[in-house]
Amino acid sequence: MRVPIMVPRLRSLRFVVVLLGSLAAATVLTAAPASAAEVHVPFCFNPTTNMPVPNCTFTANQRGMVSVDPNNVNPCSGVVGTATMVTNAVEHITVNGAGDVWITTTATAHFTFVPNVAGTPTYQGEFTFWFGESLNQNNSVLHDIGNIVVHGSDGSKITAHFVDHISVSASGIVNQFSIASMMCP
């Protein structure tokens, strides 16, 4: 019988760290050209002042980024194994003339997990993540959504879903929530 388990995202979804590490380690980015009416600098932030560059857009594409973690842990069984991911991601940043910033990142990864323990199932599947941030001088909103579905060689399935949100209004009111669920075989 499969029972949904409500869990803190970072503790129970340890194998997600491979995806986050691969996104952070991305070194090959393809930038989109700027139009005549906009500035185009890496990440739309001035490296000297760390402030947004007005009227700027930036798009980065990551394709086929491979990451391997030989010490990954199956969050349902605790079995250690090797996780391999091939990730495609797109990040887009827009800064308008007032310095308001919008950032979105979407990443999809094909995932395999080969356990170190003989006789335990291997897993393969897909992760999809979306992250968004909106900032202006008065308000900020950060949110993300993630979906993981992997299938075991024994017919089992592990699924995980999460949503995080935090916003701060101009008056300083903070609205924050996280929802995570995980289904183990």
Which strand order does the major sheet show?
Answer: 1-9-8-7-6-5-4-3-2
Query: Mean pLDDT score, rounded?
Result: 82
| Termini Cα gap | 7 Å
- The topology string of helices and strands comes to EHHEEEEEEEE
Q: What's the β-strand tally?
A: 9
Helical content band: under 10%
Please state the structural category: mainly beta
The rough form would be described as elongated
Binned strand content = over 45%
Tell me the number of structural domains: 1
The helix tally amounts to 2
Largest sheet entry: 9 strands, antiparallel
Radius of gyration: 19 Å
Low-confidence stretches: 1-38
Task: Name a few traits of the molecule.
185 residues, 9-stranded antiparallel beta sheet, elongated, disordered N terminus
3D architecture notes:
By secondary structure, the protein is mainly β. It has one domain. It is built from two helices and nine strands. A nine-stranded antiparallel sheet has the order 1-9-8-7-6-5-4-3-2. Strand 8 and strand 9 form a beta hairpin. The N and C termini lie close together (7 Å). The N terminus is likely disordered.
